[in-house]
Specification:
Length: 219
């Protein structure tokens, strides 16, 4: 009796391991296709073929496209976590903080370029892709705030009531410069399209942010 229970327990364990392995293969296949052809061109048939399973097996593990997309996104970003903004907060000097942030972000962008490019490209036509960008947009807000804080407090809604218009406009130009400097699209433009080194790209964006703080506001 004990031997039968042991064998049964072993068989159940083997079955669970097989199911987990199949789920991993399906998830990995989805990640690969999203990173190569993009979400808009990824099909269940293509996922099944790459994972070496039947279509019904994909649906058994992931009954809806949302289930599959969520599993894919969660696994991918767990493997490729965004840079920790807390590290930048420890740097008091504004331009050094900005340079550190850009260094981390630009290195990260190089690592995730295929996936992030495809998801951003397909988001307008793939609702699940657009939805998956919520955490990305929230992170960029946090990153911009962390970098900006190194230069001093920004003009919030209350300050706008008592601060001269020229200062508010100048701050707005500065905020735009910060967001431009840390953007994925900026990295692709200066590094990929214009062949700048990462070091030169950081120098260029640091100079842009510095200049934005000195611009005479157009009012």
């Amino acid at each position: 009796m004990t031997e039968r229970k042991t064998r049964r327990k072993y068989e159940l364990g083997q079955r669970a391991e097989t199911m987990n392995e199949t789920r991993r293969r399906i998830t990995n296949a989805t990640i690969e296709l999203h990173g190569t052809v993009g979400p808009a061109h990824t099909t269940i048939a293509g996922i099944a073929d790459l994972a070496g399973v039947q279509r019904h097996t994909v649906y058994r593990h992931f009954p809806t496209e949302e289930d599959l997309f969520t599993a894919c996104s969660t696994e991918y970003w767990n493997r490729n976590p965004w840079p920790e903004t807390a590290r930048w907060e420890e740097i008091a000097a504004p331009e050094q903080r900005l340079a550190a942030a850009l260094g981390d972000l630009y290195e990260f962008y190089e690592q995730v370029e295929p996936m992030l490019s495809n998801v951003l490209r397909d988001a307008p036509t793939v609702p699940l892709a657009e939805q998956s960008l919520d955490s990305y947009l929230a992170y960029m807000d946090q990153a911009a705030a962390t970098v900006s804080a190194g230069y001093g407090p920004s003009a919030d809604a209350a300050a706008r009531e008592t601060t001269p218009v020229s200062h508010v406009v100048k701050r707005s130009l500065f905020d735009v410069a910060i967001r431009h400097a840390i953007a994925f699209s900026t990295w692709r433009s200066v590094v990929r399209s214009n062949d700048l080194s990462t070091t030169d790209a950081i120098r260029l964006m640091t100079a842009l942010v510095r200049s934005s703080a000195d611009l005479d506001p157009a009012v």
